[in-house]
């Protein structure tokens, strides 16, 4: 706990057996009250390993996608009465040691959302980020800042901390079940005027770290641009889109179950 606030780390997992133990080992359990893993129908024993590590695990009944995985993560974290929720990829690409700092930024009340940025510090390419990913990241982030009226260094990090209020407010159920979920969620946070902060986060690139191929990266990039256009059109009052309407609805749990 931090200042009496319950901190839960959620791990959206898919074939993470090779890196899960290293990720969990670097979490500060004096601060992190609980760790929840949601497995999107892996084929490599991720769930079994989670059980051996003493992590609460939930299993999808088939592969639904990265976005649906996060929807389940946040629903279960809210049910577990989390005050601060930190989403960390279990592929050991992002440093788990920063969970405490990110959670503290939310607990302070200065920020509602905190992003672990790979761009702050200027070492993303030296850490192994492929050139096409780096330059597309910079282009998309520039465009999003322009359309969303923000000044973030990166919109595409998979390392994020949220206050409970954010997850209870954003209409996450209306978002994609695919990778663009991340971007829609951040656009929603800005649309609903939540305070977004960043912290520099070193990253690692190696064969076991999760990544999407070039084709899916293009699809993601187009989805990012469409999200930004929808945001601006709605802000101007020229159109309405469901991703910026309503409040959060928790999943029913019919498509996943907790592994006992």
Task: Provide structural commentary.
By secondary structure, this protein is of the alpha/beta class. It is built from 8 helices and 8 strands. Helix 7 (181-191) packs parallel to helix 8 (214-235). The longest helix is centred in the C-terminal third of the chain and has 22 residues, at 214-235.
Helices and strands, with pairings:
Elements: E1 7-13, H1 20-25, E2 34-39, H2 46-52, E3 56-60, H3 66-79, E4 84-87, H4 99-107, E5 113-117, H5 131-148, E6 160-163, H6 164-169, H7 181-191, E7 196-200, H8 214-235, E8 256-259
Parallel strand pairs: 1-2, 1-4, 2-3, 5-7
Antiparallel strand pairs: 3-8, 4-6, 5-6
Helix pairs in contact: 5-8, 7-8
Offer a few descriptive terms.
260 residues; globular; Spore Coat Polysaccharide Biosynthesis Protein SpsA, Chain A; 8 strands; eight-stranded mixed β-sheet; single chain; 8 helices; alpha/beta
Largest sheet strand order:
7-5-6-4-1-2-3-8
CATH class: Alpha Beta
Secondary-structure class? alpha/beta
**Beta-strand content bin:** 15-25%
Low-pLDDT regions: none
One letter per element, helices H and strands E, the order comes to EHEHEHEHEHEHHEHE
Cα-atom radius of gyration: 17 Å
Instruction: Enumerate how many helices there are, as a single number.
Output: 8
Query: What is the correct CATH architecture?
Result: Alpha-Beta Complex
- pLDDT averaged residue by residue: 94
Gross geometry: globular
C-alpha termini separation: 25 Å
Main sheet attributes: strand count, strand direction, barrel closure: 8 strands, mixed
CATH topology label: Spore Coat Polysaccharide Biosynthesis Protein SpsA, Chain A
Number of domains: 1
The CATH homologous superfamily corresponds to Spore Coat Polysaccharide Biosynthesis Protein SpsA, Chain A
Query: What is the count of β-strands?
Result: 8
Helix content: 25-40%
């Amino acid at each position: 706990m931090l200042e009496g606030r319950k901190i839960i780390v959620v791990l959206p997992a898919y074939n993470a057996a090779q890196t899960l133990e290293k990720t969990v080992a670097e979490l500060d359990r004096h601060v992190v009250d609980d760790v929840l893993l949601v497995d999107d129908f892996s084929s490599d024993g991720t769930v079994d390993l989670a059980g051996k590590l003493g992590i609460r695990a939930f299993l999808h009944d088939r592969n639904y996608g990265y976005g649906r995985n996060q929807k389940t993560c946040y629903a279960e974290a809210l049910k577990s009465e989390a005050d601060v929720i930190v989403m960390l990829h279990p592929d050991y690409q992002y440093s788990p040691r920063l969970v405490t700092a990110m959670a503290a930024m939310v607990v302070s009340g200065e920020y509602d959302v905190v992003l672990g940025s790979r761009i702050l510090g200027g070492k993303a390419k030296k850490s192994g980020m492929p050139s096409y990913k780096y330059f597309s990241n910079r282009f998309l982030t520039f465009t999003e800042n322009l359309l969303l009226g923000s000044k973030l260094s990166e919109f595409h990090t998979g390392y994020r901390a949220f206050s409970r209020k954010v997850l209870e407010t954003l209409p996450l159920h209306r978002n994609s079940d695919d990778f663009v979920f991340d971007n829609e969620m951040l656009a929603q946070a800005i649309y609903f005027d939540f305070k977004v902060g960043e912290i520099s986060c070193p990253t690692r690139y190696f064969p076991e770290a999760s990544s999407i191929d070039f084709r899916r990266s293009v699809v993601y990039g187009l989805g990012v641009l469409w999200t930004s256009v929808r945001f601006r059109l709605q802000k101007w009052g020229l159109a309405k889109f469901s991703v910026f309407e309503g409040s959060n609805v928790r999943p029913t749990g019919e498509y996943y179950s907790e592994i006992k």
